[in-house]
Amino acid sequence: MSRFWSDLVKNLTPYVPGEQPKVDNLIKLNTNENPYAPSPKVLQAIAAANGERLKLYPDPNALELKQAIAEYYGVEVNQVFVGNGSDEVLAHAFQGLLKHSKPLLYPDISYSFYPTYCKLYGINQEMIPLRADFSIDVEDFIRPNGGIIFPNPNAPTGKLLALKDIEKLLKKNTGSVVVVDEAYIDFGGETAIKLVNKYDNLLVTQSFSKSRSLAGLRVGCAVGHPVLIEALERVKNSFNSYPMDLLAIKGGVAALQDKDYFNKTCQAIIDTRKTTTEGLEALGFEVVASAANFVFAKHPDKDAAAIFQALREHAIVVRYFNKPRINQHLRITIGTDAEMQALLDALAKILPTV
Ligand SMILES: *Cc1c(COP(=O)(O)O)cnc(C)c1O
């Protein structure tokens, strides 16, 4: 704390991302990165752009990327917003669409960046408890609100809410914006982008960090009614004219074009998720059915924090949240088959000792 800090800064609770340890031969299963490299076409597109052109500013509107996203999802360009990772897109949505006098609603077990944005922007918030099995009951969200947000599939549970339930919510909640954060949708869900032409209060955000192996490039987007998109543009153009650098624009476009590579790597993760779930269950874990690139697992007789520590000693990092209701769970990112086998082997050794 310093006397030079503003009152706002003194009162912030910054988000703490999963660690990026600098350890050799570490098996990193803690931040839901993709174990597979980006498409070779992405790397070619970035290499081709990475020359003298970098002396110039990029297109402030990132039109090429917006057009590629619009074409991919069958929407108009003015229904697409792009940002420096979906975290930035979400931040603009919090400030531009979800800040009202009534509280913003989100699940009690959910992405921990949401309360951080509420603090930063002074947004009233109300957490809605998930059911005991971690599912969302949309009826619980039918109450006075200034906006609703949830990840689908949810993080850190991996649980998917069916599109028909999202539609049920949209039918009943017409007075505020509903943001569906689809960071993990490509690993087993159906995108709510299908509904944006039917509901003018639906905003869907997506990320290129997980299913397109581009966490390091920082590309995210939102799709919704042009009036919602305009709100995001107004915030963006009052904050940073060039959030998308040239490499992110070119790499993002190439990632959308290489559908074969995308389908192949997503399917590999889905297959590995199945074998990992079976392996964990064979070791006695209870595993939440996941539609994401991670699983959320609990051992009925072993302490999650102790397992987490013991795995670290085997150079395997997973994510542990010391929070109510989930402090006996571990969130484990799906890596390659070899990485997941190493995890299962380490757990078999560890479990009798913790
Ligand atoms: C990873 C994640 C994001 C952020 O993704 P970026 O595009 O890398 O900023 C947003 N929401 C959820 C739920 C996530 O897990």
From TrEMBL:
Modified residues (N6-(pyridoxal phosphate)lysine): K210
Catalytically driven reaction(s): L-histidinol phosphate + 2-oxoglutarate = 3-(imidazol-4-yl)-2-oxopropyl phosphate + L-glutamate
Cofactor(s) needed: pyridoxal 5'-phosphate
Functional pathway: Amino-acid biosynthesis; L-histidine biosynthesis; L-histidine from 5-phospho-alpha-D-ribose 1-diphosphate: step 7/9
Amino-acid biosynthesis is among the record's keywords: yes
Keywords: Amino-acid biosynthesis, Aminotransferase, Histidine biosynthesis, Pyridoxal phosphate, Transferase
SUPFAM superfamilies: PLP-dependent transferases
Keyword set includes Hydrolase: no
Every Aminotransferase class I/classII large domain range: 25-347
UniProt protein name: Histidinol-phosphate aminotransferase
Organism, as annotated: Thiosulfativibrio zosterae
Gene that specifies this protein: hisC1
